[in-house]
Structure formats: C-alpha cells, structure tokens
Amino acid sequence: MPVPVSQMWTVASYVVRQKLRRRKHFPVVLMLEPLMRCNLACAGCGKIQYPAHILKKDLSPEECFKAVDECGAPMVSIPGGEPLMHPRIAEIVEGILARKKYVYLCTNGLLLNEKLDQFKPSKYFSFVVHMDGQREHHDFSVCREGTYDKAVEAIREALKRGFRVTTNTTLFAGADPKSVREFFDEMMDLGVEGLMLSPGYTYDKAPDQEHFLSRKKTRRLFRQILSNRNKQWKFNMSPLFLEFLMGRREYRCTPWGMPTYNIFGWQKPCYLLQDGYADTFEELIRDTKWEHYGTESGNPKCANCMVHSGYETSAVNDTFGSLSGFLATMRATIFNRYKDPDVDNFTTTTPASSGPLVQISRSEA
Amino acid sequence: MSDSKLSNSQEKDEKLGVVHENLQGWVPSMASDEEVRGAFEKAFDYRGDLTITLKDGQKIEGYIFDRRADSPRLGECIVRVLPKEGGRVTIPYSDIAALAFTGKDTAAGKSFEAWVKKYKEKKAAGEKNIGIDAEPLD
User: Counting C-beta atoms within 10 Å of the first and last residue's C-beta, which end of chain B has fewer, N or C?
Assistant: First the structure.
C-alpha cells in the first residue's frame, strides 16, 4: 500500500464527516501555488505564461497559512511554478505540517538536491517529482536535456535521507505505452513510494496546442498502459480514478474537490481552468456557478478533461460515500493486475495531430 | 468502435486545443457594449500585459487576471488588474476609454514543434545541454 494507513484514515474520516454534515462542496486537497515562475519552460504547461512582474510575485507564508486554514482540506499539494524557487518554501511547508496536513511538494527535481537540507522527513510530507517518462521522453517533454538525470539523482538522495517520494507523470498524445510501462518499472526500482499519472489538460494558455488527448484517446492510452500491470507498480492515487482513466467507470466532475489558491486569489472553478478569481474560499464555493463546469455541463473547455483535480475527488467520494464504492475500491486494490488479453500494451495508437513526439536523444543524436 | 486489439485500431485524429489570435499590439474598437465585452474577454485570456486608458486620461499598464461581466449593465461589469507598479485595482468597464494589447504574448511561438526545430538546429551545431530557457524576469 503506497499511502500510509494514517493518511488514508485521515482522508476517509474527513470525507465521512463531511458527508454526515451533508456538506456538498467540500475540498479534499488544497492546490497551493505560492509562485508562478519556473526554471523550465515546458511547451505543454499552461501555468507559467505570465509577464515578468507576475512571475516575480510570491505568496507569503502568512497568505499560504490563511488559505490552508480557510479551506480546511486534509491534504495540501504545492505545485507552481517551481515551488523550490520560492525563497521561503521551507517555512511554508513547516507551517502547514504544523497544522497536521499531509503535504505534497511538487518539483521538477532540478533544485531538490541543493534544497533537501531545508526539509525534514515526515510521514506528513512527500516530494512529488515531475517525471514525464523515460529519459528521452522526459527531456523532450520538459524541453531541456539532462533534466531526467538530475531528477533521478535528487530522488535517490531524498530516498536515502528518509523522505517520502512519489513521481507525477503527465501524458500527451503520442505517448508510447511501452516506454511508459518501462518507466514505471524504473521508478519502482528506484524505490519511490508510488506513481501519479494524469492526461495533459487542454490548457488554453499553454504554448503548445497540438498534443492534447481527447477523452477517447485518454481511455485508450490508459487502458493500454494500465492493463496487465506489473505486480510491483504502486500508484499513489485512488484505484477507482485509475479505472476512470481506463474507461471502466464514469464520474461527474467535482471541480471544488481540489480548489486552487495562488497570487491572484481562489481560482474559479478549478486547478486547471481559469475563469476568474474569488477573494475568499467561502466566496469561491458560494459564487462559482458550478453547473457551468464539468463534462456534463457542455462547457467546451471541460469536454476532454479527465484530470485528477476534477475527477479523483469524485472517485474518493465514491469510495467513502457508498457501500458499492467502498467494495469496488477494495476489489480494485486486491485484484490490481487488470489482466486483459485484448490489450496490446506496447504499440502507440494515439498519434499526435501534428507529427510524432520525437525522442530527443535516442533518435536525434 | 471496439476497444479490442487496440494497436490495430484506427481513430480519427481529433483536433483539440485553441488557435491563438495574434493580439500583440492590437487596439480593439470599444464603440459598442458588445465590442467592450468582447475586448475584455480577449484581454482576460491574453498571456501578456495590457494598457488601459481611463476616461479621465489615466493609463494603467498591467495584467488582467479577472473580469466579472455577468451583469447586463456595463457599469456593473468590472475588470481586475495587477498593475506593473504593484498593488491590484478594480475598474468598472464604464470607466474605461481604451484598451491596448501592449505587452508581449508570453507563450507565442513556444510549441513542441518550435522546440523540436530549435533542438535540431542546436544539435546540428554541436551544442550540448540543449533546452528552452524560461523567460528572463528583468
């Protein structure tokens, strides 16, 4: 089991408490973006396309703590930008941990080695290292050679020092399922606690607009990747959400499940879609027209989204909101190989719409 | 289509993503309510700074991070800006005389294709540790 039992218990008891209170719009993970600047410039990323005066801004630790307290979610994920570029990131993490929240610090790993001394291992604290695949795929995806090797080196060091480490992988059209599966093996051999996965969201603001996955392609790709699983793979994700990605179950979007706070305020309606900002969490929940979002709303910006920020909370709600959901989760946890002789796990079937994704070292060197 | 034998399946290549207009340098007409609303929707989606000229002649250069335009009355619609000089301001649409897309579109020309092209050129020139650099902040 990749997630500590104490963390599962915290989340489970929190969700059950919200349900007993008949609270509909409750958050599970706060996405806290303390800055927007990054030391990479990935073409598929829609998070860092801002003028310099915006990229220079940081949330203060006090602003971060206020957001954590306002929101009340039991888990806090800190993406960005690159959070390790924040001059007071260790102070921010420490303050959130003092509130007994489970903290996931997302990083591309480039600064991790030099910043490790600022952090202390804790069951409440994980580094989430962004790894988009094997060396060539990853370096291509983040638009810089050498990043895979640096990140792997940092993961090794963090593990050696006793930190919890998971990886987070974003997949775009043209992803090679065989390579992704081999990458999972590599990461598990490295000793990471678990793997996280997501299809790339169709960010309007991303520089690249050509390699997003439709829902149909997402299901096909994830079925290819996640059927006939290697026994050693562990996922730091809801097993029902993985089934959703594989097309084995349907969920409605829960955009309030992972609310986002950043230098602009509380982002409406979700982590990925920017449709304005609220000044308080209460205002976000009260004034957002939730019916305008999610696949079922007909909103074209949501049409192809299957991303965790909208749908993993739906899966968690399913697990703790019904006996059938709980039993399905148990079944998915125990019988987790998903044997399927009809699935070819190795051949790329999701070509990019404007040419193949190249592997920068292997094919170009 | 059946999901069986996935590797042999042929799927129509759906076109996703948006085609961004080249708005850098654009000064929209603001003659009608409809034009004002349309201009501010584009301004909200723009990946760079804009310059707003108020009816009293004051100019504000900055990033538009929010707009609230649900009201049918233009005077009740607002745009929220982070000015370059700092702080944050809220401006009713009805106070605005002109809008100009003066800042650089920070994402333009940075697609995967552009990256591959750059990579090939640099590789051919014998360079090592090739990558796209983040925008300079100064």
Answer: C
